[in-house]
Structures are given as structure tokens and as C-alpha cells.
Write a structure and sequence with these properties.
seven-stranded antiparallel β-sheet; single chain; Phosphorylase Kinase, domain 1; twelve-stranded mixed β-sheet; disordered N terminus
Length: 322
Amino acid sequence: MRFLFAWVLAATFPLLAAGQTGSDSAALEWIARIYSAGQKLSYSGIMVYQAGERSETSRIVHVFDAGHELEKLESLDGSPREVIRKNDVVKCYLPKQKTLIVDQAGSGRGFPSRLVASHATLSEHYRVTLGDEDRVAGRIARQVELDPKDDLRFGLVLWADRDTGLLLKARMTDAQGGIIEQFSFTEVTVGGEVDRDAFRSRFEGEAGWRVIDAKGSEMAGDGVGWRLASAVPGFRMTSAVRRQLGDAHGDVVHMVFSDGLASMSVFIEPLHEGREPDTGATRSGPVSIYARRVGAYLVTSLGEAPPKAVQVLAEAVEAVRP
């Protein structure tokens, strides 16, 4: 999540305009504004996530100060959970399991900073248009619609605060216009002072917690050991990390691919002798999953994308030959 609006717009909009065939330049300008506001504004509020019959309410507090970001997301229903981020370091507190997971922030962050920095090819794969004005959480919002040009990504409707550009609501839709998932603020405050104690966990300092360091080590080039035999249109690799997930899984390679809006992950883990993994397509809520065996490894791709997209990605993965 990263107002220096004029700076971001000046840096980003030329890239957007270069590929805006079939898209509205004003809508692309709003995309850049949403990206900037989500990261470089201070805000707090209550938001609701919905997917199918599942609903979850959370409190979010975000501050941008002297080039640093602080953010805390606290679940208000169901199992208690806190996620605290300082720049790119994320701590997830799971009190029910008395477990703290420390990780790096991924390239595709959550609502309300859903968009990632690379917009250069966004309009090659989406028709980006302005919709009507509406009200969300008591504020006037401008709709921006992203309609996919192929069957490898879902559509998205965004509601951005007219005054600040902050993303107030986001809805993911399938090819028939059905709602896959939705995030929305029910109340939000933009600006103002936030006490730094708001970013401390109420579980900090408790004894008996297990700490899991999931950051892993970053890799690049042939050091990843895996590549795509054929490109997935619009998607490029944004990160590759090797993680240690214990004896049951060994070292796992985790690659993230993004088109500037949607993102998909690929996990590659060694198979122990005698293990016959489940392969093929499955689904978990809005997340599509596809697994295949490649020699002595299990390749699993997943993401909030159509089943075809994660299958195409998984089937394109191959080992780098010396």
C-alpha cells in the first residue's frame, strides 16, 4: 500500500498511455492514482471481505511517514488474527496456535492497495473504462472497470474515493459478471494523526509462542532452477524465493507472476520416495489450483484467476537444463 500524486502520475502515466488501445486514458489515470493513494496516504477504517457465503470483517490502520509504511490488519470476527507490516516485513500473529509467522510482503498486496507498480501492459489485456460515481462508506467514489480481453484473468470493478483516490471497494467478477469476491470499507477515515502504539500487537511479549521465519532467500536468473517453457500472455515473474518448510516438504521454490493486476504463484517441492501426490485441478473459494508432477518434483500453481490460467502456468514450468 504506497500522496505524491503528481510525481507518481508523471512517472506512470506515460507507460499507461503507450498501450491504451481500447481503454480510456482518464480511467488509466485513475488506476495510477489508486496505486499512489493506497500506499502514500494515512488511513484507518473497517472493511468487509466477502466470497461466496464467507464473510470476514477487519480493522485496518495505515500510516505513511518519512518514506516508511506501517500497517496493521486485525480480524474482528472468527479466529483472532493480526497482521502487522513495516515496509516489506510482515508479521502474522495467530494466537489460537500461539504462532508468529515472519515473512516478506509479496508483490501483489491486498486491499486497498490491490494494484502493483507495473502498469505498462495493463491495457493490453484489460479494457479499462470509467464508470459512474457512487457512494461507498459515506464518501463519493468513482468506478473504474477492468474487463479482461481473454480467458486468463477475471474482471475487476474498483470504487476510488473522488477526493483522495483511495480504493474504497473492489469487486472481482467472472466471465458472466458473477461476483467472485469483494472487499469494501464500511467506514473509513483518511488523514489525521495515528498513535504509533496502534501498530503494536496485543500479543507481543507473551511467552510460549513459536516463531516461523518464512522469508526465505531470493533467487534470480538460472539460480532459480526453473523457468517457463512458454510465456503466459501478460504475466511476468516478479519474485522468486527459496523457502524451508521443514522435513515434510524440504526446500520449496516459490515464484510469483503478475500482469500488473492479477497475480499467480508457483510452488515447486521435491517429492519423497513413495509419495503419490494429488494432481490436477482443484479450487478453494476464489483461488484456482492446479498441480502436476515433473520428474521428482510437484509443481503447484494457484491464484485468484480462472482455472485455465493456473493450468497454463503450471504446464509451462520446466527445469533449467545445464
